[in-house]
Amino acid sequence: VPSRLILGQDLKWLKTHVGYLGNECVDQLAKEAITKGDPFLLPKPLSYLKAEIQSAALSIWQDNWDNGETGRSTYDIVPRVSKKPVGWNREEIMFVTGHGPFPSYLLRFNLRTHDNCSC
């Protein structure tokens, strides 16, 4: 249809089942195709496949998150994985993960001699 419009050919609306020979032939062929034709499968659209892959990836990610050995303090606060950011600022992320200027974290890298808080 789009190529016919580009070429300048006219498309006309015809009333169905009133004896137009070409229309009757097309109607007959369509009926034969659904009753006598060989069935075939159409491939799924790309959007469907993308959604399926994304769902599988999220499921694997959630399973890894549920059964992981690291990040448990964060897991206690955010137990469900998501593509959407949690919306925390830098300081909140450091506090929740424990990765920041904290004595216990600095001790892990030998940047402090003890993990006692001076406060």
Report on the architecture of this protein.
This protein has 119 residues and is mainly alpha-helical. Among the domains are: 46-81; 88-118, no CATH class. It contains six helices and no strands. It has helices at residues 2-6, 21-36, 46-67, 72-77, 90-97, 103-108. It is rod-shaped, with a radius of gyration of 32 Å. The mean pLDDT is 85.
- Write down the secondary-structure element order: HHHHHH
Helical amount = 40-55%
Instruction: Report Rg.
Output: 32 Å
Amount of beta strand = under 5%
Cα(first) to Cα(last) distance is 77 Å
**Average pLDDT number:** 85
> Counting H and I runs of at least 4 residues, what is the number of helices?
6
Shape: rod-shaped
- Estimated structural class: mainly alpha
List keywords for this structure.
mainly alpha; single chain
Brief summary of the model shown:
This protein is mostly helical and 119 residues long.
Secondary-structure blueprint:
Layout (H helix, E strand, L loop, with lengths): L1 H5 L14 H16 L9 H22 L4 H6 L12 H8 L5 H6 L11
Protein name: RNase H type-1 domain-containing protein
